[in-house]
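Q: Hi! Curious about what N5-carboxyaminoimidazole ribonucleotide synthase looks like structurally. Here's the sequence.
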Amino acid sequence: MNRVLVLGGGQLGLMMAEAAARLGLVVDRYDPERALLLPGTSDLAVPISWEECQERYPVITVEREAFPEEGLSADLAKSDRCVARGALQVIPDRFTQKSMLDKLGIPTAPWVLLDKEEDLPAAVEQFGGVVVKARSGGYDGRGTWIVGEGGDLSAVPAAELAGKAIIEKKIPFRRELSIVGARSISGETLFYPLTRNWHVDGILRLSLAPANACADLQKPAEQMLKGIMEELDYAGVMAVEFFEVDGQLMVNEIAPRVHNSGHWTHEGADWSQFDLHVHALAGVPLHALNVHGPSAMVNLIGTPFENAWLQHPGVVHWYGKSVRPGRKVGHANLVADTLEGLREGLDAWADVLPEGYQAVLESELKLG
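A: Let's find out. The predicted structure is below.
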């Protein structure tokens, strides 16, 4: 299989196309909003029909979870060639996602459906502090309301959210971790090491990989992700975000695609997550992963490009997007021999990192 179609015209699909080009493979992108095809890494959009897609692409994948309800992208996402078809039926709705985790016996925060307005005070009485999440559409802190124990419920539009949200118990976690792995069309699997993530206001700002003190957590994380991919008959790269609680892992979110917390693999491993995604779909064997050393990924959020960054330690990946507050417009990857060396490199990026990143590094160093 030397041709793959990715549904979505964004940055993740572009990075898949770049990875494919290095292997002599072709990944084209379909932009659902414009109903146009973007061949390879080109920005020259052209029309394409269902019949042409069927003739040209034996495999279809996705770079996001939500698509228009009608049109070519909707039809392609539901077709038997879409390796994410099962995941798209379950993962985008947090109710069905959490129900699947419960079915598989995979630990997740205790939860209930926000079916009617009175369910919110009842959940607070049951759980104490809670997190209310829209069933679909929320990301980067959007569609999420956090209420501490004894907190004010008036900030949560419970009546408006009735039937459209879930309520989770607020978990006092030690740190946030994630695992990125791949499953090939033939069922072969491969996993990156667990990654430490730091979110500010719901947006990922810094990832550190491999996460320290995870020898006992790596295999359980792999088994959970493998079980999810098998349940959904999924092929390609998938990511799972965890809370670490009392030395155990608890699933927070699932992403049926390449993931922001895996961007460190561009420079931090022999094969990036984008390479691995293409390999898994094109029938290329999933080679053993060589991680180069302690790595960091710094998200560049809502900031214009600075030429001075090119003199900083690390490699800049700039997305060419228009800049607006809260928008991910690029990332920088750093690799060092030690976490101490990584800390020195990150200090050069202090102007784009929120206050507190040093404490994240210190906590990882203490775990080492």
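A: A fun detail: The CA atoms of residues 132 and 167 lie 5 Å apart.
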